[in-house]
Automatic annotation (TrEMBL):
It comes from the Bacteria. The chain crosses the membrane at residues 31-54, 75-99, 105-134, 146-169, 175-196. Keywords: Membrane, Transmembrane, Transmembrane helix. InterPro entries: DUF624 (IPR006938). It comes from Zhihengliuella halotolerans. This is Uncharacterized protein DUF624. It holds the Pfam family DUF624.
Length: 214
């Protein structure tokens, strides 16, 4: 069979099973990486390393590839993602604690503002993480700047990324909780890489940044 010949049903099944196995492995590696940094300092490098491992062109072994990228971004990932994480936490606190105590129209306005702030901070973190993973030569400030501006330039893609994360979070409270435990991080990251990676590839000069020594 030539490389250009369409896959039969058996070939398509194998492709799907391979993707599921990769997602399971990435999910487990993310958990290990986050725990290795006591979650607060481990979640950011684990997220960027997991996004790199979801690159279809990354044919290195998942274990070695993940930890190589994890070590490379262990320090640089913190200023990229921690500010967005802090923004999400503050906006959630405002949404869940402060807003219920504010009556009337002011409470309704604060509800809308807080909801938008949560979504914007979450989307910004996703965009910044995908940029850092897609452009290994990018400096933290470049990734953070893309996180700040990117969601407003591609709001539909930002909404899709946040929606995938919310769907995974919602599944943890339903009968599908086991699926969320197995794929709840990896699948939203796969969606984010597919949606935001296209935006990153359209940026002029990204190829030169990717070739920059790290």
């Amino acid at each position: 069979m030539s490389e250009t010949e369409p896959l039969g049903w058996a070939g398509r099944v194998m492709v799907v099973l391979g993707l599921l196995a990769r997602l399971l492995a990435v999910q487990a590696l993310w958990v290990l990486g986050a725990c290795a940094g006591l979650l607060v300092l481990g979640a950011a490098p684990a997220t960027i390393a997991a996004l790199r491992c979801l690159d279809p062109e990354d044919d290195a072994g998942l274990w070695r590839s993940f930890w190589r990228h994890y070590r490379r971004v262990l320090v640089s990932a913190q200023p990229v993602l921690l500010p967005f994480g802090a923004g999400v936490a503050c906006a959630l606190f405002n949404l869940l604690v402060v807003v219920p105590e504010v009556p009337g129209a002011a409470g309704a306005v604060l509800l809308v503002v807080s909801t938008v702030a949560v979504a914007a901070a979450a989307a910004g973190g996703i965009f910044a993480a995908v940029y850092a993973a897609s452009v290994p030569g990018a400096r933290p400030g470049e990734s953070a700047r893309f996180g700040l501006l990117g969601p407003w330039l591609a709001p539909g893609r930002a909404a899709a990324c946040v929606g995938a994360g919310l769907a995974a979070l919602a599944m943890t409270t339903t009968a599908a909780a086991p699926i969320a435990i197995l794929f709840g991080i990896a699948v939203p990251l796969l969606v984010a890489r597919a949606m935001v990676g296209v935006v990153v590839d359209r940026i002029p000069g990204v190829g030169a940044l990717a070739a920059r020594p790290t």
